[in-house]
Structure formats: structure tokens, C-alpha cells
Amino acid sequence: MNVLEILFYSLSVFALISAIMVLISKNPIHSVLWLILVFFAISGHYILLNAQFLAIVNIIVYAGAIMVLFLFVIMLINVKKDSEPQKLLFMKFAGVITGGSFLILLIALVKQATPLVGKVVLLKEGTIGLINPLGKALFSDYVVPFEISSVLFLSAMVGAVLIGKK
Amino acid sequence: MSIQYYIFFCLALFSIGVVGVLTRRNAIIVFMCIELMLNAVNLLLVAFSKMYYGMAVQNGGATTAGIDAQIFVFFIMVVAAAEVSIGLAIIVMMYRNTHSIDVNFLNRLKN
Fold it and tell me: pTM for the whole thing?
């Protein structure tokens, strides 16, 4: 087992444990902090895949902007720790069973998919994740969606202000 | 690293998000679990793009193969940022009207 596999497994275990902690922590602020750890682990996966641009964008946009927005809203509306009424144990059990069956079904599906056998992911190498090729593709082939996304942001901003206003 | 390990990891992360959406009642936690599912899909897209790139390099093809998936991930992040701002505005408005962020209060559209 080489260094890359050890990194893959440790980052995966770290991300899964943090994701489970997002679910089972009672305090929403703790959930946000665990989710930030999940995003850092996923950024580590991006660096492992040599997608450096996406790793940085993931940290800046998700862990930096979106999670701060979540924390801000949680502090704004001041949710008390025990304000969330507990669901019935039966409902929680049913949810976990549903998610587990979903996972088992998809894993069984992937395990018998013959086109995926023997395919490997190129770790650590490759230049497509760097800023230079991504920027060239973004501003040549994908320049129209890029401009449309600015319109999307403008409409989202106007919508958020309109909804947030009383 | 085989692609199947990446698929299994992303499926596990996605399923944890599904379980969170199904079991929690706090609207903010439900929203965070949706973000978790989006991130699992993003990671899977990047893994597939590197798989495709590796195959293209082996066959002596173009060196920009698989770059589309990373552009898609970038646009998914763009849309997720816009979606979060709208969603949190809706949650704040919901809290202002019902003084609770329990999703079970949203079972009716009237009144």
C-alpha cells in the first residue's frame, strides 16, 4: 500500500466520520463545524486528484462563504438547543433503513457493472485540474454559460433581498 | 486507485446525506445534508474526469480530455452558492412567520 492509497483511505474515513457527526450532533453549530471538516476532507481528495483549482474553490466558496452564511443564519434566528422535538425512534429507524437499503442497492449495482472493471483513476498526475487549462476552457467553450451564471447570481441576489425583506 | 473505491466512498457520503434529510427535522440541518449530497456528486464527477483523462492519455489522445467534468463541477458550485442564499432567505422568512424551523410545520401550503 503506497502513500496515495493511505491518503485516500484516511481522507475517506475522516470525511465519513465527520459526515456522520453532522447528523448525530444535537447543536446545529456543531453540525456546521463538522460539515466544514467534511469539506476540507473533500478538498484533500481534490488535491489528491490534482484538481487544484477545484480544491481552492471548494475551500473558498463552501467552507468560507456558504458555511459562514449558515452560521450567520443559525446565530440570527437563535435556535435553542432543545427546540428540535425528537422524532419517534421508529421514524429514525425507518430513515436509517431506507438510506442503508439505498446504499446497498447502489453498491450491488456498481459491483456488477462490467464497464467499470479495471478502470483506474489517475492520482497525482495530469494537468487538466490546473488553472491554466480550466481557464482556457471556461473562457472559450463555456463562455456563454459563464455569462449566464452572472445573470443567475444577480437574480438570486435580488430574490434573496426580496424574500428576506418583510 | 480503482474507480470503484471512489464510487463506493461517494455513495456512502450521498447515503449519509439522504439519511440526514429523512431523519432530521431542523430545516437548517436538512439543508446542510443537501449540500453534503452535492459535494459527494462533485467528487464523483472529478474522479470520473480523471479516469477519462487517464484513458485518453494512455491511448495517445488529447491532453484536455475530461476537462468538461471539472467545468461542470465549477458550475455546480456556482448554482449551489446561489441556491444557498435563496434557501437561507426562505428559512429566515419561515422562522419569522412560524417562530420555528421545524420542517413539519410546512406540511400545508394554505395559511
Answer: 0.89
